[in-house]
Design goal:
664 residues, Rossmann fold
Length: 664
């Protein structure tokens, strides 16, 4: 699993997300590869995207693409979508699938949920604000013009102080009364330099919008990730891609109470049905004028889960019950996607039996919790419930699995598309800034400019002194980095970048990560203890067998002694943990008995059962084929690729130059 951490592209780290990646690795029985990509604003778009692409290209040198799952949360989820589109368009092998946890897919904030109050979310409704520093906020056109004109130091300090005191986020066009609104249908609005302005990022030099009857121009950069002109770029806001078809299967997990809910629902439906959600005429003219991309790729298979009342990236709260179900769902989808891509069955260990949260017991006793009793009651009543690694996925309908999930993991049908506000937006409104989010941002910007006016003056004074000392290294005509970029602050003649102060550790986040890791560490310890018990039981059985008279074939003559033949193992010295079942979805009644303690881990087999292709008759024939094959299957044939093949795929062909290692 290649995991791209979130953090609005400007904070977060692999260390802070380590406890989450540990859970994914344990649930999926996989390794996790997490790039430490460069963060904004010092390294704005596309620096981080370059790093993540480089990480995936490296993985392709050591791993087959069908053995890789991409995953990301928040900004990392948006980054994963952009990675997949680039890989698709460049013809680079795609991974087996991708998991998007609350992806941030629209940096223009054009969907209705962003304008809400987000009472159930911890993401501030006004967006993220930052204290003034050498990197933020970057100088706007007015400040850059002052520096370029090389005014006197006193005059510059005076102008910058006045600018910082009143705030420079908004400017009204000259000659316009602040309480009037011109007829925009007569002529396009122009700023002081006669450049057109409008509400669509990228069309004009500045964004402009009517807020409470006043026409304002936004001159300061809004998002730390990129400039205002690039907010609608398809690699920045993936909902503005011409097509999200032709991608590997996607799992999109959305919190029903999060502020970014609508854009995530729109993203899922756009991937499954690209033709139904095309670009607006404005964006189409720039990114897909002839609809060549829209008609080129088929629909993407998408599983969308909207979790009732949950916040943004709910798996962050790993100690909660909904988060536990989310991790299970991710493991279920990922295991299925790997089996589908590899066109064969794969084996995965189900360790929920030894999970503290799953068992509800810290001391390792077999006491069944209320949660398990409730789960068994729901299963007996036929209630659909979130699965776990090894459980089969439902069949895709029109390339989608649409699910609404409550905090107890119970699955319900989603509302029809006609009842979802995000799917009823006109295409012309997607990617267009709205008054609601802008109003909240302007209010917060005014408050922060007042609170940190002194710090802002210090930063601007430092910029003026650096300009007087010789300025910065120039760039060519075709190279102009964003004002916040670190590369744009190379002092002239130095030849090296400015040295940034070493980042301080966030002790709060570090303690949070350590606490979040305790559950997985405890579970792994329990698992090791149970493996040791199984090995001791096996040695005891072997000792009992050796003490009884043996026949010529090595079987005990004692009728009261029940023994088994020693099994071949990959290590040759320690017995392998025996399998509980071969197909997770086919379980004995004893496994569902609420009175039976769950004290053993199980190895289950995952396979694609034609969820995306085929029909029910094929699925039944497939199960019958497996049942017949298992009756005369030797232990060594379990690993064969031809045993558990889905009826919709031919046997997997071995890649040229690569050979599977022989089994001892």
């Amino acid at each position: 699993m290649l995991y791209v951490h979130g953090g609005a592209y400007f904070f977060g780290s692999v260390d802070e997300h380590r406890y989450q990646m540990q859970r994914h690795a344990r649930k999926l029985r996989a390794r996790v590869f997490a790039p430490r990509y460069r963060l904004a604003p010092q390294f704005p778009f596309p620096c981080g995207l370059h790093d993540c692409l480089a990480a995936y290209l490296y993985l392709l040198t050591v791993q087959e693409p069908e053995e890789i799952i991409l995953a990301g949360d928040s900004a990392g989820g948006g980054m994963v979508v952009s990675m997949l589109v680039i890989l698709r368009d460049q013809g680079i092998p795609l991974p087996a699938g991708a998991v998007l946890i609350s992806p941030w897919a629209d940096l223009t904030h054009s969907f209705p949920s962003v304008a809400g109050d987000s009472e159930l979310d911890y993401i501030p409704a006004r967006g993220f604000m930052q204290k003034p520093s050498a990197s933020w906020p970057p100088p706007n056109d007015d400040t850059i013009g002052q520096l370029n004109r090389r005014q006197s130091a006193a005059e510059e300090l005076h102008n910058c102080a006045a600018e910082a005191g009143k705030g420079s986020a908004v400017r009204r066009p000259m000659g316009m009364d602040k309480n009037t609104m011109p007829d925009l249908s007569l002529a396009p609005m122009l700023d002081r330099d006669c450049r057109p302005v409008n509400m669509v990022a990228g069309r004009g030099h500045h964004l402009s919008i009517e807020v409470d009857g006043k026409f304002v121009i936004l001159k300061d950069q809004i998002q730390l990730y990129t400039t205002n002109q690039l907010l609608s770029h398809p690699l920045v806001s993936p909902v503005l891609q011409p097509s999200l078809g032709g991608l590997p299967p996607l799992l999109i997990l959305t919190g029903g109470g999060e502020i970014l809910r609508d854009e995530q629902i729109y993203l899922a439906h756009k991937a499954a049905n690209p033709a139904k959600y095309p670009l607006s005429s404005i964006h189409q003219a720039e990114y897909d004028p002839n609809n060549a991309i829209l008609g080129k790729y088929p629909s993407t298979d998408v599983q969308l889960q909207v979790w009732d009342d949950l916040c943004h990236v709910a798996p962050t709260l790993s100690f909660t019950r909904p988060a536990k179900f989310m991790y299970r769902s991710i493991a279920q989808f990922s295991a299925w996607a790997l089996a589908r891509a590899q066109r064969c069955s794969i084996e995965i260990t189900d360790d929920d039996d030894v999970s503290v949260i799953s068992s509800g017991s810290e001391d390792g006793s077999g006491t069944m919790s209320y949660e398990l009793d409730e789960l068994h009651a729901q299963n007996a009543a036929g209630v659909a419930h979130v699965g776990r690694a090894g459980d089969p996925l439902p069949m895709f309908k029109n390339h989608m699995i649409r699910q609404r999930v409550d905090i107890h993991g119970v699955i319900f049908d989603m509302a029809p598309e006609s009842d979802i506000p995000a799917l009823q937006m006109p295409t012309s409104d997607v990617g267009v800034i709205k008054p609601g989010p802008v109003r909240k941002w302007l209010a917060a910007k005014k408050e922060w400019d007042t609170r940190y006016a002194a710090e802002k003056r210090k930063v601007q004074k430092r910029r003026i002194q650096e300009m007087k000392a010789g300025g910065f290294e120039p760039f060519g005509d075709d190279e102009q980095p964003p004002p916040c970029a670190l590369v744009g602050r190379r002092k002239k003649g130095s030849g090296v970048n400015e040295v940034e102060r070493k980042k301080k550790k966030s002790w709060g986040m570090m303690l949070w990560s350590l606490w979040g890791s305790k559950h997985d560490e405890s579970t792994i310890r329990r698992e090791e203890e149970m493996i040791q018990e199984e090995e001791e039981d096996a040695r005891s059985n072997m000792a009992t067998t050796n003490s009884a008279p043996l026949t010529d074939d090595g079987i005990s003559k004692d009728p009261h002694t029940k023994t088994e033949r020693p099994r071949a193992t990959s290590t040759g010295s320690q017995p392998r943990a025996r399998r509980k079942s071969t197909i997770k979805s086919i379980r004995s009644d004893a496994d569902n008995d609420a009175s039976k303690p769950r004290t053993r881990r199980r190895t289950v087999t995952v396979s694609d059962q034609g969820q995306t292709k085929g029909n029910l008759a094929e699925l039944r024939r497939y199960y019958q084929m497996e049942k017949n094959n298992r009756t005369d299957m030797s232990p060594h044939r379990v690993e064969s690729d031809e045993v558990f093949l889905s009826p919709t795929y031919p046997p997997r062909q071995e890649s040229p130059g690569r050979h599977e290692p022989s089994t001892p």
